[in-house]
Amino acid sequence: MSRDHVTLIEVGLRDGLQNEATPVSAQQRAHWFNQLAAAGLPRIEAGSFVSPRWVPQMADTDQVIAAIERRGGTQVEVLVPNQRGLESALAAGVDRIALFTAASDAFTQKNINCTVSESIARFRPLVSAAREAGIPVRGYVSTIVGCPYAGAITPKAVAGVCEQLLAMGIDDISLGDTIGVARPLEIDRVLDAVLPLMPAERLALHCHDTYGQALANVLQGLQRGIRSFDSAVAGLGGCPYAKGASGNLATEDLLYLLAGQGLHTGVDPQAVQAVGEDICRVLKRNTPSKVAQAVQAANRPT
Ligand code: HMG
Ligand code: MG
Fold first, then answer.
1. What dihedral angle (degrees, nearest 10) is formed by the CA atoms of 103, 108, 112, 113?
2. Strands 137-142 and 146-147
3. From the candidate CATH numbers 3.20.20.70, 2.30.110.10, 2.60.120.430, 3.40.1190.20, the one assigned to the domain spanning 7-299
4. Rounded to two decimals, what is the model's pTM?
5. Dihedral of alpha carbons 149, 123, 9, 189, sign
6. Which of 38, 115, 130, 175 is deepest in the core (most CB within 10 A)?
7. What distance in Å separates the CA atoms of residue 287 and residue 7, rounded to the nearest whole number?
8. Whose CA is nearest to atom 3 of ligand 1?
9. How far is CA 150 from CA 89, 139, 146, 205, in A?
10. Each residue of 191-248: pLDDT tens digit?
11. Hey, is 300 helix, strand or coil?
12. What residue's CA is closest to ligand 1, atom 17?
């Protein structure tokens, strides 16, 4: 992939809808998936195979995947916490799975009911099984700068978790600023610790926008050679087990930034914006995306 191409991983239908008070039907989620795929998004999270007791909103992810039109090259990704999740994901016919842990024991305990070390031990056989099935595995490392329960996190702690994920054969890593507190200098320090372990091509940034720093953090990542970013249409997002986590960086805003930097994504911004408007209509919310707001204002009849 050339240096002026950026890969977007769309997480709104998982990171966003996992947090909605009212669950959204599988048919509706599949419809949005199909529209986002038609907009050119190359990788889209369709949901997660987690415990429905923990995250009821993701309970029917298998039905979402069954209703997705597998046209074009869009890859279907899901989050998987354990062996049972992996089996469900393979049965559903996903293209990729993502395992998720964090640089903070306190958060990991709340999110997946185990310590970071226990999560690593749990993941090892999952990575082997996924590789045998020919499915690439992403590893999420959450709370890379701040944890809602433990406070500040050191870059060394983040690098330690990345090292263990790499040692078990994970394909790529997404560094998550779960509660959106990070600023560019802090992202830079995390990258100082992680980039010696792995090439920038295998890293993504996953920026929540709670403190309005997500775009600045993406720019910092771009300067350090990162070319994959997670984002969410209509700025959806949050984690039910991360107090204070708000939406992800909006895909609409990320696309605007990247186009201005002369970087290519293959994604149609207008088509993404239309999906974002539909999502906001159905969820009865206003978009936090500044770009979506600006485009809507410009298109409003005077
Ligand atoms: P547990 O309670 O320790 O595990 O939960 P368990 O084995 O005792 O299972 C509890 C119940 O769930 C049992 O059912 C299991 O059968 C069932 P019961 O007998 O009570 O009826 N179960 C499952 N059902 C379906 N699929 C499965 C599954 N596993 C167990 N795979 C567990 C441990 C990991 C299961 C739980 O903590 C869990 O599901 N956590 C998920 C939390 C989550 O999804 N968080 C949001 C995603 S992470 C995030 O948003 C951050 C990210 O965006 C990056 C960032 O922003 O930094 C990725
Ligand atoms: Mg997230």
1. 140
2. unpaired
3. 3.20.20.70
4. 0.97
5. positive
6. 175
7. 23
8. 113
9. 32, 21, 8, 21
10. 999 999 999 999 999 999 999 999 999 999 999 999 999 999 999 988 888 887 789 9
11. coil
12. 51
Asked if 206 and 176 touch (Cβ cutoff 8 Å), the reply is yes
70 lines ligand 1 (CB under 6 A): no
Considering the candidates 147, 162, 207, 239, report the single residue annotated as catalytic: 239
Q: Write phi, then psi, for 15 (nearest 5 degrees).
A: -65, -35
CB 12, CB 236: distance < 8 Å? yes
In this structure, which amino acid lies at residue 20? Answer: E
Kindly give the distance from the C-alpha atom of residue 153 to the centroid of ligand 1, in angstroms, as a whole number: 24
Q: Residue 237 is which amino acid? A: G
Ligand 1 atom closest to 81 (CA): 34
| CA 63 / ligand 2 centre spacing (Å) | 22
**Span 257-278, pLDDT tens digits:** 999 999 999 999 999 999 999 9
